[in-house]
Amino acid sequence: MKKMIAAAILGIPATFGFAGCSSSTTAQTGDFNSEAGEQTGRAKQALSVCVDVQRGLPGSAVEDTFLDESSADNPSGASGTLYTGLSNGYEKRSLLKFGLDFIPAGSIIDSATLKLYQNWRDGESTVRVHQVTAPWSEDTATWTSSASSYDATVVSTIATPSQVAGIVTADLTAVVQDWTDAGDNYGIALEEDLVLKTEFKSSEEANAARRPMLSVCYTAPTCDDGLQNQGEEGVDCGGPCAACPPVGVMITQPGEAYGHHGACGGWNGCGDAATCAQWACEVNGYSQLVSHGADAPCTELDNCHLFYARGDIQWNWGNWCEVSGVTDIVCSN
Q: Where does the record locate the signal sequence feature (predicted)?
């Protein structure tokens, strides 16, 4: 039996199956072996799957904390804020870790973007990103135990503007590829020059749209034994079945998207694609966002539905101006 999940495949909505789960169709083509109950045809194209990892989303495992030199033996994992830089003469650093076990071994990471909500910065700065080199937990990590447990190589940076609240990003594509290849994902450390401090919202933040998020797109490997499993191109690489992913309902048709009223050329009040997608789930009667796919200006789409605010939407605006719209939205309850 097979269970279906929705995915964004090269910008086109599609589904693929996992052995050992229940459903009635597969997205691949080929001869079906009814005795074995498995798809025996070869996959026709690689699947580029995009997943947002954020606390509160189905299947997501996220930990984060900050390390405080002034309180070197006390953990801060329950804080709603992450800090970097200098505060009252003492340094602060932050750690974040996103569970990525759903990515099959051998996958190619097409993109991986860290999104943080910057709450405060008293002057422009650059926050540096490093790979953590040892296990840690947000419940127990302290300055004493974990402040030096990262590689000195800067793997990415985050530009933090002065006195501006909003989403800032870092490109972690190479880092996630390294984790996928090596199998050791201890997360990332954030630090900056000791001049001022930067504040970000943590996973304990009540507003889910402001929690840290890692958006990953990957293409799983191909294999030759003709059986479906894991999440490759519809064929089996020989490992055991992964746990069935969350099941959802695709609420968008091809060319249909959701965005936010306001100035053309951005997300306006939504803030980002994930928030617009979550709001779209809610106005369609669902409580949870499972995944979303590509985003594009509404002029490149057939129909955009535009929010005035959460729960307040104007339907069927067509391809109206360059406001951003998100497609391939999958929701569940």
A: 1-19
pLDDT in tens, 262-276: 888 889 989 999 999
Rounded Cα distance between 232 and 174, Å, is 20
For 47-105, the pLDDT digits (tens) are 688 999 999 998 899 999 999 999 999 999 999 999 999 999 999 999 999 999 999 88
User: In angstroms, what is the C-alpha Rg of the chain?
Assistant: 21
Residue 46 has a CB neighbour count (10 Å cut-off) of 17
Residues 6+ apart with CB under 8 A from 285: none
Nearest to 146 by CA among 33, 63, 42, 81: 63
Where exactly are the structural domains of the chain? 1-47+220-245, 54-100+110-214, 249-332
CA distances from residue 174 to 136, 231, 273 in whole angstroms, order as listed:
22, 21, 23
Bridge partners of 258, per DSSP, are 305, 326
How far is the C-alpha of 193 from the C-alpha of 182, rounded, in Å? 30
Distance CA 203, CA 210 (A): 8
The pair phi, psi for residue 276, each rounded to 5°, is -60, -40
